[in-house]
């Protein structure tokens, strides 16, 4: 544990917080299990770890394999949603914004909600997001890669991971059929599903993700040299939905322990946003019982404690 924790955000200070977070993250990672849901992800070593923070005032720090690409899986749902909202700011009724206590792959939850997704982070909502993004952009994967900064080929969709999910998936296919049955999709299922799996199979590093999420923290000012990525009211809504629904069934636990809007993925990534301050991202593959990265949650908890990051 560092000697002092304060609200300063110099690179040196951030690095001290990351050192403390790293220790907690590695300890917690030992309690988790690497996901087997997508066979290609099961091959990733449980001991890999990376963490990066970027602040709205331009400070950055990182630790571990911070430039290594990993499978962002459901972190892509956040960036696909933001890409969609740029094309269609009023897409919310189609994707929902309320919490759900059903699993992210629940079909029954659709049935209990008039066949509408509860929010854009459960798979039904994410499929609707990808479907609409595909309609607007012609390529939901490229639109999502672009939201991640795209450049220099370091963000790309890994065809091996996508194929691994295509070969083994039944659940997303079932959800897509139910959505189609109730008129919630625009594109044919056999067009939508490969796009969705390729979107989930995007590879990026924690540094890229922390930087790419800064627009969700930068609520007052416009990014240098250009238009805001999303208008401030939309950013507030995205953060609200993240807080309620970004961490599977653990929203209450995460709000209690950390107090930040956050999104996780079964590849072991966790990305958290502190409005007005910055974004922090961890990659640690073993997952806890809620499906969140055990090391990622513990590392962000320690970092947030040290940096004084909480929306409460
Ligand atoms: N590709 C996975 C799925 O759609 C992502 C799951 C996740 O990261 O939450 O089921």
UniProtKB/TrEMBL annotation:
SUPFAM superfamilies tied to this protein: beta-lactamase/transpeptidase-like (SSF56601)
Catalyzed chemical reaction(s): L-glutamine + H2O = L-glutamate + NH4(+)
EC number in record: 3.5.1.2
UniProt superkingdom: Bacteria
GO function terms (MF aspect): glutaminase activity
Binding annotation for substrate: 74, 123, 165, 172, 196, 248
Segments traversing the membrane: none
Coiled-coil regions, chain positions: none
Acetylation keyword on record: yes
This protein's UniProt keywords: Acetylation, Hydrolase
PANTHER family: GLUTAMINASE (PTHR12544)
Protein family membership: Belongs to the glutaminase family.
Summary of subunit composition and partner proteins: Homotetramer.
Protein name: Glutaminase
Gene this protein is translated from: glsA
